[in-house]
Write a structure and sequence with these properties.
Blueprint (H helix, E strand, L loop, with lengths): L1 E6 L7 H11 L3 E4 L2 H17 L30 H15 L4 H15 L4 E4 L5 H8 L5 E9 L9 H4 L12 E5 L6 H12 L7
Parallel strand pairs: 1-3, 1-4, 2-3, 4-5
Length: 205
């Protein structure tokens, strides 16, 4: 099974948008995220906590693009953003289990994607070596790593928990590096690189 892990030191470089483009352009591509199960657990955590605070209105926690970096608001979360919450919950589960837990969960997702007939799995939120190290140990996986950046994108982590997830992986740690122009005009250059490197099959439909 071919697996593409995409990293960027800064959010909002167009990773998810590019993966959607890949799915439209090539056959058999499944988009997955290391963070998805953590987001689900974060919402469950918040919901369970609020069950013990019945006199307080439960906050709405959303991980969409427009909300994930804004304060959740209200008691007890206050200025904590959904992005910060998911980072902290990830650390909590890692400490309670082991460092490879999210790599193991990702591997289960990959196995299911293979059963469903997909040929390539793309994770666009690779942030930690513990994730890639576990997947690289699996002999049935062919891993390619890509570092993406974009001209003019600036990012300042909102907290220490977020900072601990950003910037751990550098361009030299990856098989491939690519920088989008401001107008995304060189997108097809990356298509050509990945098509050759990973043997992607063009969608003629």
């Amino acid at each position: 099974m071919k697996v593409l892990l995409i990293n960027s030191e800064k959010p909002r470089t167009g990773k998810s948008t590019y993966v959607a483009h890949l799915q439209q352009t090539y056959l058999g591509i499944k988009h997955l995220a290391f963070a998805q199960p953590i987001k689900d657990l974060s919402i469950q955590f918040a919901s369970s906590l609020m069950d013990h605070l019945p006199s307080i209105d439960a906050p709405v926690i959303s991980y969409d693009t427009h909300s994930k970096d804004k304060p959740i608001g209200g008691y007890p979360f206050g200025n904590t953003s959904p992005r910060e919450l998911v980072c902290d919950v990830s650390d909590l589960y890692t400490k309670a289990t082991n460092t490879e837990i999210w790599g193991r969960v990702a591997y289960e997702y990959i196995l299911q994607a293979e059963k469903d007939g997909f040929e390539v799995v793309v994770f666009d939120d690779w942030r930690r070596f513990s994730e890639s190290d576990y997947l690289k140990q699996q002999e049935d996986l062919d891993i390619t790593t890509l570092y993406l950046s974009k001209e003019g994108v600036e990012f300042v982590p909102s907290s220490g928990s977020v900072a601990s997830f950003e910037g751990n992986i550098k361009p030299l740690d990856c098989d491939l590096t690519f920088e989008f122009t401001n107008d995304w005009g060189n997108t097809h250059d990356l298509d050509s690189i990945l098509s050759c490197y990973m043997g992607l099959k063009y969608n003629h439909g």
